[in-house]
Amino acid sequence: MTAPSGGRVAARLAELGLTLPAVAKPVAAYVPAVRSGDLVWTSGQLPFVDGELAATGKVGAEVEPDAAQDLARICALNAIAAVAEEVGDLDRVRRIVKLVGFVASAPSFFGQPVVVNGASALLGDVFGDAGRHARSAVGVAVLPLDAPVEVEVVVEVS
User: Fold this and answer.
1) Shortest CA distance to 80 belongs to which of 31, 147, 5, 131?
2) What gap in Å lies between CA 19 and CA 100, rounded to an integer?
């Protein structure tokens, strides 16, 4: 999928040199995003690039924190694509309400907030003030497919 034509969000994506990817196919029994009223919830988005995980392993062991921050950014872009598929025009996004980032962490790694900053920064870059959000950054033992990072968002739309 390419950036939606027209609109300020599409223009911002283009300025950032970003193209929305195709929405990742679910790896289990769920859908990528669900809308209820004015809110859209995305399922957890992994760092898929062209249908493949960009990396695997634990942050602080096999995956460096800086690389994991880039992976969180990919997850956020995938979440934006899921929202776009659900609502069509990304200019309908009023606010990113909540971001939850999960970081598969080596036992001694405690920099989860820094990793999830990759996703937070992307949402701010794309949506401006509407991209400011509440957030959780959670360290976990393992994620699906041995992904290092997973991100989900709640978005308010018009």
Assistant:
1) 131
2) 23
Q: Which residue shows structure tokens 């360290």?
A: 139
Q: Residue ranges of the alpha helices (H) in 16-129?
A: 65-87, 112-127
Count of CB atoms situated within 10 Å of the CB of 134: 10
Which pLDDT tens digit goes with each residue over 12-70?
Answer: 999 999 999 999 888 889 999 999 999 999 999 999 999 999 999 999 999 999 999 99
CA–CA distance, 62 with 106 (Å, rounded to integer): 9
Q: 37: Cβ–Cβ under 8 A, 6 or more apart, which residues?
A: none
State pLDDT tens for residues 78-94: 999 999 999 999 999 99
Q: Give the burial class of 137: count Cβ atoms within 10 A of its Cβ; 0-12 exposed, 13-18 middle, 19 or more buried.
A: buried
